[in-house]
Design goal:
By secondary structure, the chain is α/β, with parallel strands linked by helices. The chain has two domains: 5-248 and 444-468, Aldehyde Dehydrogenase, Chain A, domain 1, CATH 3.40.605.10; 253-429, 3-Layer(aba) Sandwich (Aldehyde Dehydrogenase, Chain A, domain 2). It has 15 helices and 22 strands. The protein has helices at residues 37-56, 59-75, 77-88, 92-112, 155-166, 181-192, 207-216, 229-238, 262-274, 291-306, 326-341, 370-373, 389-397, 412-421, 455-461; strands at residues 5-7, 10-12, 17-21, 28-33, 118-121, 132-140, 143-147, 170-174, 200-202, 220-226, 243-247, 253-256, 286-290, 345-348, 352-353, 356-357, 360-363, 380-386, 404-408, 426-429, 449-450, 463-471. The strands form six sheets. Strands 14-17-18-13-12-19-20 form a seven-stranded mixed sheet, sandwiched between helices. A six-stranded mixed sheet has the order 9-8-7-10-11-21, with helices on both faces. A hairpin with a 6-residue loop joins strand 3 (17-21) and strand 4 (28-33). Helix 2 crosses helix 6, helix 4 packs parallel to helix 5 and helix 5 (155-166) packs across helix 15 (455-461). The longest helix has 21 residues, at 92-112. The radius of gyration is 24 Å and the shape is globular. 52% of the residues are buried.
Length: 476
Amino acid sequence: MQAKLFIGGRWLGSCQLDLITNKYTGEVIGEIPKATPDEVEAAIAAADQAAPVMADLPAYQRAKILLKTAQILSSNQEEVANLIALEAGKAIVFARAEVDRAVCALTIASEEAKRIGGEVVPLDAVPAGEGFFGMWQRRPIGIVGAITPFNFPLNLVVHKLAPAIAAGNTVVLKPAEQTPLTAVKLCEYFAEAGLPDGAINLVHGDGPTVGSQIVTDPRVRKISFTGSRAVGQEIISRAGVKKVTLELGNTSPVVVARDANLDLVANRCAFGAFYYSGQVCISTQRIYAEKAIMETLKEKLIKETESLKVGNPLDEQVTVGPMIHEDEAKRVQNCVEQAVSDGARILTGGQRKNATYWPTVLDNVNGSMDVVSKEIFGPVVSLIETESFEESLALADATQYGLQASIFTKDIDQMFQAIKRLDFGGIVVNEIPAFRADHMPYGGNRQSGLGREGIRFAIEEMTNIQMISIKLGTSS
């Protein structure tokens, strides 16, 4: 696939090319130009020029474009899913599911575009407001800078573009360097659906150059970023006075109560820890269970883990494919080896071949080990035995992160105890932390980020409130 940059409704760029590879075989599957500073400037200028056009575009037309894009994407599901499987290394069954989710998110955005309203404010509730009529409305913020990760090269792009378009904004998009081709396809579909020129502009390149130019430009009034905490902190320090939404990861804990269905827990945790090789910010990383049930849970989790098929992501039976790069697989391998040298035990897995790292279950870990305290972002899960449900909750919450956590229990008192005790943006009961519906508010507390995604909530982040105060009785 020979891709181009998308700037002002035109496909441009012919300078230095980046080669995009099949993450399982290493073969080249496409190429895309690296954006020059002048091209990034052109993209921002095109978005700036199109901003008044988008702001004036009626809600029903924005909704129509989003719905049409969803329909085009749905009709090309298999092509896009195969592209995701190739450039991201994601198992084809999960790649198809990602396309389905993106279609849903676009459809939801088309509906939300028609619901952006405001409220009447009773200004005469205070003496100073007597004789005034008040109301507020939401106005598009202008240009949104969208910087997206490799792990969901379609759906996380949609989660930034769709609400921005629904709200009447324009976008400068920098997709992940490893997976830009899926985003190029999405831009093609938006253009085919009738989106005005300049409403979406795609530039490709690295963060320190292309990303930094987007973040620091004063015409860009909003940054929406998903990625590492280190980069998120850099964005905050350099963005200036503008809105910023950050989704920065997690060390997702699962608390298993004594009354939990352990077959269900093992099955769901094996899925949650290892699908897409654990390269998901809400991938199951830490499992806490009391001593009375730990051995049984351990046996069941090992069995479920060893039943997963590892290999070529285009194989319909494969659950675990390669990581995004061999260096990432080596990083995970080194992290596990360090944990083992500090006393951890590998119950299953622990092998690597090229970019593929086998699903790995550890025990005998402690909170000082990187496999517990830092986001592993790989196919590794740790089992931690506790003396009580309360201790499990305390250890689960003993983290600098706070994106999503889960608890398995049939006891409603324990359920609400966990909800009150755990300082996370989302609490999931009787399912893994990786649960996400695309219209729910999604985002983290503490070091896991700022703001919320989920179409309606992202629209709120991508708009400004405009207050209108009208003095009555002055016309005569």
